[in-house]
């Protein structure tokens, strides 16, 4: 059981976006199969303290190609059909730092002390 916990989270990438943070995590199952979780974490102020609201989806390997095609098609549509040239230029030259992949092991995972999930 302990060995499985070490394998549970294999890779993590965090994208900070204002009050939101997106986490892209690769995890393994008990049978050593792999899947991706995509989590949106949004900071909220409630009852004189901060908390975090999260939404999570699970993406299984058999759906990777379909998911990526749909996501890329949607992004391409927005870029080509809905955005002005100025908005597109701003998107392609972001001012915030890029997402950085972070290898993780179960023992290395830590969160801010104020992190609270609802």
Secondary structure elements and their pairing?
Blueprint: H1 2-8, E1 9-17, E2 20-28, E3 34-46, E4 49-60, H2 64-82, H3 85-92, E5 100-103
Antiparallel strand pairs: 1-2, 1-5, 2-3, 3-4
Describe it.
Belongs to the PUR DNA-binding protein family. InterPro entries: PUR-bd_fam (IPR006628). It comes from Pontibacter amylolyticus. A 5-stranded antiparallel beta sheet has the order 4-3-2-1-5. Helices cover 29% and strands 40% of the residues. The longest helix has 19 residues, at 64-82. The chain is α+β, with helices and mostly antiparallel strands and 118 residues long. 1% of the residues are buried. It is flat and about 50 Å long. A hairpin with a 2-residue loop joins strand 1 (9-17) and strand 2.
Q: Structural class of the secondary elements?
A: alpha+beta
Question: How is the main sheet built?
Answer: 5 strands, antiparallel
Summarize model confidence as the mean pLDDT: 80
Supply the number of helical segments.
3
| Sequence of secondary-structure elements | HEEEEHHE
Q: Report low-confidence residues grouped into runs of 5 or more.
A: 1-6, 105-118
What proportion of the residues form beta strands (DSSP E)? 35-45%
What's the overall geometry? flat
> What value does the Rg take, in angstroms?
17 Å
Distance between the termini: 28 Å
Strand line-up in the sheet with most strands: 4-3-2-1-5
Helix content: 25-40%
Overall strand count: 5
Give the tags.
3 helices, 40% strand, disordered C terminus, disordered N terminus, single chain, 118 residues, alpha+beta, five-stranded antiparallel sheet
């Amino acid at each position: 059981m302990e060995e499985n916990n070490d394998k549970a989270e294999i890779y993590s990438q965090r994208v900070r976006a204002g009050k939101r943070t997106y986490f892209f995590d690769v995890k393994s199952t008990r049978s050593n199969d792999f899947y991706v979780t995509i989590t949106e974490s949004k900071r909220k102020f409630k009852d004189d303290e901060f908390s975090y609201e999260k939404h999570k989806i699970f993406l299984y390997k058999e759906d990777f190609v379909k998911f990526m095609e749909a996501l890329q098609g949607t992004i391409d549509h927005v870029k080509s059909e809905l955005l002005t040239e100025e908005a597109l230029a701003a998107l392609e030259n972001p001012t915030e730092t890029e997402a950085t992949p972070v290898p993780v092991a179960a023992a290395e995972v830590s969160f801010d002390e104020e992190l609270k999930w609802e």
